[in-house]
Amino acid sequence: MELFPREPAVTREVPADAPLAERMRPRTLEEFEGQEHLLGPGGPLGPVLASGAKLPSCIFWGPPGSGKTTLARLLAERAGLRFAAISAVLSGVKDLRDEIARAEEERRRGRRTALFVDEIHRFNKAQQDALLPHVERGTVVLLGATTENPSFEVIPALRSRARIFTLRALDESLLARIVTRALEDRERGLGERGISLAPEALELIARLAQGDARRALGLLESAADRAGGRIERDHVAAAFESRLPDYDKGGEAHYDVISAFIKSLRGSDPNAAVYWLARMLEGGEEPRFILRRLMIFASEDVGNADPLGLVVATAAAEAFDRVGLPEGKLILSQATTYLACAPKSNASLLAISRASEVARERGALAVPLPLRNAPTELLRQLGYGKGYRYPHDSPGHFVHEQYLPDEIRDAVFYEPSDQGAERETAERQRARWKRGEDR
How many whole angstroms separate alpha carbon 138 and alpha carbon 142? Predict the structure, then answer.
């Protein structure tokens, strides 16, 4: 017994001059490949349709070109639903209202609507809230597509009323099959043109596409336009136009790449750090965002192991404001490589974390009397400032004094590491306080 009862392909009008990727969209679930973990035996989408159950609201989360739109359309068609699509980027509240009104009309006629919202993460909270009652009442079955983690980008109320399915990037072997099929297909693909494809060209397309079927077919079509009867590797390289992979400044790639950048800095790998820096800059990342992260890193992960780290990061931010791009890349590279190679310590981070925890738990502990400000005679009579010893009047400019409240007088928050300049700091502090204890 087949998981999905086989049905004839649904004929959709696709213009002959439409992009190859659009012409080659799978027309049935049987043609759809690459997401067997969802559609294969034991996959979560199998029982939904095989049992005859109604298609629930779904959010499809996955990288570009993994088949989110196609899968949503095919599932809606298999479930017998009218398919209506809007884009969260191009559509406004009026478009949403119009589609809801049409769905209500269709429902009165006995036909339910699957409302597909592409890039649903682009809808703000108010727009997502506006969808909620229509999903709850069953006016529409919501099918959302997003490249962003729905845990962060879709409101909890919508998430709780939809099943979330994660699509995976397509592997290179599958992309190669998709490209080959498009090259040979005489009805929708390039078969009528009689073009052949060199094996190394096919391999390059599959690699450059980075899991994106739409990009792979776009590269094939562009390379075919450049070639005569045979597509060579050089044709593919020219089609790619030597550009780096897409970098979405507002999307998940943004957070993944900046995470890789910071972790490479923390791991003292200047080669990896400067690579991720280049990825961000070539992708159009705002340099000031990177500079802010470098300044934070200089305190959080370098700290007093190399106090010049913060100086370098701050100077880089100021210098960049004066120089700008493209020369400002040099400044960013210098700061990045300096911080990557610097000794590392998170002692300052741990110190403020520990102190903050105690401050929250213990509340407003009293300031010791010798440390209190005494601007009036009355306060001095009450003991404010009494017994305070001025360190600069003592040998070594140090006195052994209690500066913490009585309740936490022995607390230790800052523990200098044995890295870089902090090693000397630790030794100096131990010597100071030991001398004070000996007296």
Answer: 9
- Give the CATH number of domain 172-240; options: 1.10.8.60, 1.20.1560.10, 1.10.10.10, 1.20.950.20: 1.10.8.60
Phi, psi of 30 (to 5 degrees): -70, -30
pLDDT at 100: 93
Q: Which fold has domain 32-166?
A: Rossmann fold (3.40.50)
Q: Are strands 230-231 and 196-197 parallel, antiparallel or unpaired?
A: parallel
11-19: long-range contacts (C-beta < 8 A, 24 or more apart)? 14/188, 19/217, 19/218, 19/221
The encoded tokens of residue 27 equal 């027309």
pLDDT band of 59, cuts 50, 70, 90:
very high
Nearest to 236 by CA among 262, 207, 275, 210: 207
What's the Cα-to-Cα distance from 229 to each of 178, 198, 217, 233, 412, rounded to whole Å?
20, 11, 18, 13, 75
The pLDDT, as a whole number, for residue 180 is 95
**Domain limits, CATH 1.20.272.10, in the chain:** 252-341
Cβ neighbours for 404, distance < 8 A, ≥ 6 positions apart: 368, 410, 411
Closest CA to 265 of 337, 340, 331: 340
pLDDT, tens digit, for every residue of 353-393? 888 888 888 888 888 887 778 778 887 778 787 878 787 87
Domain 252-341: CATH class, spelled out: mainly alpha
SS (H, E, C) 48-89: HHHCCCCCCCEEEECCCCCCHHHHHHHHHHHCCCEEEEEECC
